[in-house]
């Protein structure tokens, strides 16, 4: 896309690519939720994916993790094209968390992490049934690793608590620990600070830096701009399914197209600007038609003294509705 600005930092720009998405497009019937998106995440990077509500961020994540089969395009992990099957994507080395927390609420904190470990355990069903020495060794190793991860995210003291009894912020941390249990090379976080207070958000920021320091690349969706711009080496902006801008936090924050996309002012060449102009013209046309219709009807059917009241309202209603919906749509 010609409008994209790519400005990686010097160190990360030369590092090996962990994730390469090329021309990813996802259509749902007539709706194109993601259109021709390219994105690279390199070793050692934290990359942010931002965009207004409904921009296609989660759909793009779902294409990366095999939850959706992209209509077009492909996704590679460390140079190998990924089959669009979630368990194969996890096995390859990509783990994720979800926008809506998906824990096993009646299992303990430790058991939740052990579930995340199963792609890395080799013991089969027979071994599990017999509970031989191989199985016991593997089980002990899994528990040790799970405890290590709980220590890492600060939940070791709550290993035996039921997941559903954890406060919200800790449930999000547990999701991260469970994702890390599959030993990923790339972690995808979908709104990790949603619903968190400032202190929890700061802890999450530190946690993501610590994950990167373990050698795990991170791709993160978030609406909290302060969090994103503090955290990320590079940020990509999706608007109406298309990648609008990509660059360092400074580049993205200073880009007038990003400001316009968030504030909702259409600008020349913006994705969807043409459609928006068409809709606006059609609405104006409809408003004009409505404004003149009652007048014509009034002159034919109604008594002359009722006509002025009939034409006053319709002329104003569509314009004020339009203004309201724009404000609402951009408010989040
Ligand atoms: N399974 C689906 N079937 C049909 N349409 C879908 C489906 N999933 C998403 N969409 C549509 O695709 C568009 C992009 O949605 P998506 O959830 O990816 O946006 P988002 O950027 O993650 O939004 P938010 O920030 O609000 O989470 C929306 O118009 C949404 O309604």
Automatic annotation (TrEMBL):
Q: Name one GO molecular function term.
A: ATP binding
The record's keywords, sorted A to Z, are: ATP-binding, Nucleotide-binding, Transport
Gene Ontology CC terms: plasma membrane
Q: Which domain of life is it from?
A: Bacteria
Biased amino acid composition, Low complexity: 305-321
Q: Where is this region: Disordered?
A: 271-332
Skewed-composition ranges (Acidic residues): 290-304
- What's this protein's name? Branched-chain amino acid ABC transporter ATP-binding protein
Give the species. Streptomyces showdoensis
Q: What is the lineage of its organism?
A: Bacteria, Bacillati, Actinomycetota, Actinomycetes, Kitasatosporales
